[in-house]
Each structure stands twice: as structure tokens, then as C-alpha cells.
Amino acid sequence: MTGSPPLSGATGGVALVASGSARGTQQISNSQLGQRVDTSDEWIRTRTGIGNRCICGPDQSLADLSHQAGTQALSMAGWDADSLDLVLLATSTPDDLFGTAPKVQALLGARNAVAFDLTAACSGFLFALVTAAQFLRTGAMRRVLVIGADQLSRWVDWDDRRTCVLFGDGAGAVALEATSADRDGLVGFALRSDGARGNCLNLAQHNERQTLVDSASHQVGGYQPISMNGQEVYKFAVREVPAILKQLLEATDTAPESLDWLLLHQANQRILDAVADRFNLPHAKVLSNLAHYGNTSAATIPLMLDEAVRDGRIQPGHRIASSGFGAGLSWGAALFHWQGPS
Ligand code: ACO
Fold this sequence. Notes:
- The protein has about 350 residues and is of the alpha+beta class.
- The chain contains ten helices and 15 strands.
- It has helices spanning about 30-35, 40-50, 60-75, 100-110, 125-135, 160-165, 230-250, 270-280, 290-295, 300-310, and strands spanning about 15-25, 25-30, 50-55, 85-90, 115-120, 145-150, 170-180, 185-195, 200, 205-215, 215-225, 225-230, 260-265, 320-325, 330-335.
- A hairpin with a 3-residue loop joins strand 14 (about 320-325) and strand 15.
- Helix 3 packs across helix 4 (about 100-110) and helix 7 (about 230-250) runs parallel beside helix 8.
- Bound molecules: acetyl coenzyme *A (ACO).
- Acetyl coenzyme *A binds near residues 44, 161 and 230.
């Protein structure tokens, strides 16, 4: 468990300077899903706020989504790919279990960057942001690209109406740069895990034992589609997200009304509204694009951030409280300022 206070021992700061995003090329509406499972636009919109999701086409990979989002962020930052020290890819749906970040590094042409994957489901982007910040604050690195990307359409049971209506494919990227401690954009963070409650949301291996030789056996199998106890995950989210945000705001001496934006993992509009209500924040301060994309797991936070940066809602200097939550169980929160490109 890593908790606040976050800044002790920090020698430098982190600036969030640019963003990018990408989506699956195929848009599927709630009504279209009704061709496949017994559901309706009215049920999905009322219970989740979702209207459409974007699903990767047959020729679109997780590396492609990540590359597209990363290229946009580099372009906004005005950086050469060669100047990156790290490409950190938060994903639970890699193209390759050995890691997809190196493929993204190659596609970007980031020849000097080390690249690796980080897995923390829907909390993955925030966990990766905080991880990257450690390299930057210590002075070990100067420029990092953090990408949150997931292609859950590969792992959804498209005949299970309880889960298939929720998810989509996407990627979001944020370019981070080392800066001085007095200009630090990452004001605070808190990260949590509770594996004891992990069985309410899984994308797990199921194996059978097969004889290998006379005296030894091995496991044969593969990953099963997503299984979720929706009500348990819902209760977990509406309890833990306000609690960790409250802790973070108190630890950083931040009044909720001083926030410009609440940027939460996009899983369910009812969860977003419930969290806003706990802090008496107007719903207009809660960023939401659920209606268009559904839950894109590790991508939701940077994808939403990028949209709001590009349409001008998020301005340099804005103070943003963010929280991610999901499988693991894992959850976390971060308070940061958007700097934008210089
Ligand atoms: N269309 C129509 N009816 C449906 C559908 C559907 N797509 N899905 C379920 N139903 C039915 C159920 O069968 C049930 O019918 P019954 O009463 O006859 O048995 C009824 O609707 C109610 O089902 P509930 O599961 O109780 O519905 P609920 O109100 O809890 O909403 C939902 C379900 C939307 C999944 C909600 O529980 C939720 O959002 N949970 C949180 C999920 C989440 O946030 N996940 C994030 C993490 S994801 C990650 O980390 C990868």
C-alpha cells in the first residue's frame, strides 16, 4: 500500500504536458447489441449511461491503439520520439503476454526509451502515472510517455448481456516531463489493492492437468472471458472512491470546491454522479464520455483527459482530482495540475 503524504523525499517535480487518444474503429450502439443479446437501449442508458462503444476492427491491435494515442501526445508536446526515456503501457489486454510496450516503443521510434507493461485493470493508468512520476522526481528520467490502453472486446463474452454492454476498446496517452519541485504538477496520490476481494471481477486462467511424462504433469488451458459480480463492484466503487478521494483532499489540504474537474474512471454514470454528490460538486464538473465509449478500462481516464484538453474544457493550471478503480481489486486517486505544452 502506498499512501499520502506523497511528496516526502521528492527531489523534483512532474509536469503533465500533453495528451493523445485513440478508439476502436467500429462503433456499436446499444440497439445494435440488441441484435445479439436480450437487452435494450433504455436498459443500458438508464443503468449505465452508455449509448455506444467503439470496438477494434479485425486489423487493429492494442499496439496500434497505443501507438496512435502516443503519437498524438508526442505531437502536442512537440517532442521527438528519440527524446523519450520510458514508454509505460498500462494494460490488462496485451497483444503479447511477454509485453506490448516494446512493440509500441518500436512503432513510435522511441529508440532510447525503455518500455514495459503495467497491469492494474481499470486503475492501471493512475498506477502507471504515479510509477512514472517516481523516475522523474528522482532525476533518473526526463521524459516519459504513459499510455493506458485496453482491448477488452477480445475478452468479453458477447453472449453475456450482464457484461458485454459495458465495455469498449481505446487508448489514452499523457506526456510527462521532469520539472523542479516547486512546479510539481502531481500534488498527491494514494493507491490501494485488496486481493482478498478480487473474485468479483476476473479475467482468469482456467487450466486442466495433463500428463507431461511419467512423473510430471503440466497445465493446459487459457483465459476465460470476463466474469463480474456487477452489484459487488458497484458497491465497492461507491464506497472506496469517495473514501480515497476524501483522504487525498485532506492530505493535500484541498477544498473540494477548489477543484476544476473530477476525472473518474468511466464505468457507470451512476457511480460518477454518486461520487460527485458525496462532495457536493456540481455534475458539470464531472468529466464524462461514457455515452460514447463505455468502459475502456485503463484507457478511460487519459482518453477523457485528452478529449477535454482538445476541446478546451481543461486549461493550463486547472486542478484535477482523478480516481480509478476496478479488478484486483485495485483503486487509487491522484490530484494533479494540467500544465500543457510550453
Ligand atoms: N439488458 C437487460 N437486462 C439486463 C442486462 C442488460 N444488458 N444486464 C442485466 N440485466 C438484468 C438482469 O438479468 C437482472 O434481471 P432479473 O432481475 O430478472 O434477474 C436485472 O437486469 C438487474 O440486474 P443487476 O445486475 O441487478 O443490475 P444492476 O442495476 O446492478 O446493473 C451493472 C448492472 C450496470 C453492471 C451495475 O451493477 C454496475 O455498473 N456495476 C459496476 C460495474 C463496474 O463498474 N465495473 C468496473 C470495473 S471494470 C474493470 O476493472 C475491468
